[in-house]
Known about the structure:
Chain A is an alpha/beta fold. Chain A contains 15 helices and 11 strands. An 11-stranded mixed beta sheet of chain A has the order 1-3-2-4-6-5-10-11-9-7-8, sandwiched between helices.
Amino acid sequence: MNSMDLTAVGLGRKIKAKEISVEQAVKDALEQIRQSEEVYNCYVTVDEEGALAQAKKVQGLIGDGTLTGPLAGVPVAIKDNMCTRGLRTTCSSKILDNFIPTYTAQAVENLEAAGAVILGKTNMDEFAMGSTTETSAYGPTKNPRNPQHVPGGSSGGSCAAVAAKECSYALGSDTGGSIRQPSSFCGVTGIKPTYGTVSRYGLIAYGSSLDQIGPVAKDVTDCATILEVISSYDKKDSTSVERKDCKFTEALVDDVKGMRIGIPKDYFGEGLDREVKEAVLAAAKVLEAKGAVVEEFDLSLVDYAIPAYYTIASAEASSNLSRFDGVKYGYRAKEYEGLHSMYKKSRSEGFGPEVKRRIMLGSFVLSSGYYDAYYLKALRTKALIKKAFDKAFEKYDVILGPAAPTTAPKLGESLSDPLKMYLGDIYTISVNLAGLPGMTVPCGTDSKGLPIGLQLIGDCFREHNIIRAGYAYECSREAK
Amino acid sequence: MANIISDETIEYVGILAKLELSEEEKEQAKKDMGSMLDYIDQLNELDTMGVEPMSHIFPVNNVFREDVVTNGDDRDEILANAPAKKDGAFKVPKTVE
């Protein structure tokens, strides 16, 4: 049996019991990478040598009893927008093609301290801007469930690597759905935690007020376990929240009796694929049969989330990405006349079209004369959206809906019409605007065999509710 | 399209964004920005009178720390990423004539 068939927690258990060595687990992952990477292109960088060396070291620390956690020795893939000391980090952009970080992101450090072995860095949409992983400067990632289709994005490489068993689990990041949507398309499980739960230190910023790192894995148990390890209060991230309730694995209980679940009617209207709708409503029925109280309600403001999001995210991106200027790291143009020409040429040659599109839009909405009408208007809308969720969570423990309106589109169909691509984020984006935790759990496939994802949304700091609901659903799904 | 983006606007935004777009890219940017702004204009349907702009979801304040050095000397490591360097410093084109 191949150790990559196991869940991360299952593999960790076997490593602990000395049934599988860490080296064997890493070799199994590397072998799978060798077999399928040519087709799927999940990774930008595979660190075979580093992983094998780390495997040896971790095995020693498990042997002498230093490492006892559930993830000790389990091989992981990291999205390429998280800094890893000494290991190339590109954000899937030409502008960072040769960037070697001098420090490691806090979330990754937490994993390493728990004995994780890093296999490499996964492909993504350039600077996490996109919903298909097709805007990567290193070529698109293919969906392992059907390589004619995209894996979703922007954490497409991480989700595809988990689906293709090219790693045991992965870290992704989610600014507008970038963990939950590709998890849905690839048939894996992923959590975007409450804003501030996982440190953003070392995560290359896109929309700082929206970005969160989260786990991508085979099941809810893995995700809860990983999230428990990566969550930490971090003084190096000024938006980090000091939480005392990060024992997420305690929520792995197969019991939803009395849990109040709300289904927003506005999530099931026009634009939602019929098969997705049926699969998601069938999942709600499963939870209802287990004792949850399920009812429909009007969330409101759903249509306004996308315009507010693209205004805020682009504005923050235009500011965050000003650091790429060809001076301290990254790409510098070969020919230029003077300093400003160097800045402009380096950026124009280094960034891809989608990144430039968002920097331009962001610069515009922040410019004098338009700041109030666009940027502040979007922030006011965000306040209203947050209020709508607050009201919903007075009545419900969990909000249930689809993660995306459709299953994975075919490669090459999305980028020609950006606005249409943005509309695909309709169910995930408002969660980021309101800072809420959200999780995708696979809930079936469509007639083409493409995975469908169920999205569970909780109130801020209530990951326990969505983990419990997701776990209970999964228990029934498995029993079928 | 309600929002017509002029050549001047694209030039100006290009300066703000520190991007040098080709003629072709400029035409595309005018179209893309116009349609995005048309879309964003939907927000005007919402009455946001008296609503405070929400930049952060939680009421956070500035987070201060003691002003003490905690990192070591990693100058050489940092400079290893520089596109051009000289005498332990980043090298840039002449900035003052």
